[in-house]
Design brief:
By secondary structure, this protein is mostly helical. The protein is 72% helix and 0% strand. The chain contains 5 helices and no strands. Helix 3 packs antiparallel against helix 4. The termini are far apart. The chain crosses the membrane at residues 32-54, 74-95. Residues 1-21 are annotated as: Disordered.
Amino acid sequence: MGNKSQKQAKGEKKRKPSHEEQIVLRDQWRRAWLAAALLGSAMVARGEIGLLIIEIGHNETPYVSDEGFITGVWAILLNTIIGPVTVGLMVRFYGSKLEEGDWGLQSPLPVESQEIGHGAV
């Protein structure tokens, strides 16, 4: 048994976060969710690679039928259209909140650290 199981067996209760802590945690979760959704939506729209792979699978293997090929092409086309639209809408409506989060704009390095070779080139 781990230490946590032993504490629960003794009857100790888990401390509930205060109202202020809950607000901070909820805000952090929302910012992280927005950043993750933006990154995921931006990665979806790589349709040319998907078309190339499904075409190879259809032409050179017996695994992709005609119906599967058509379904795959439609899915790739929809993702290629929906991904950039989603990114644009998220940036338009949630851009300022994304800047505030952990994945937002980074502060530039001080000049003295760039002079000694630790800055970006």
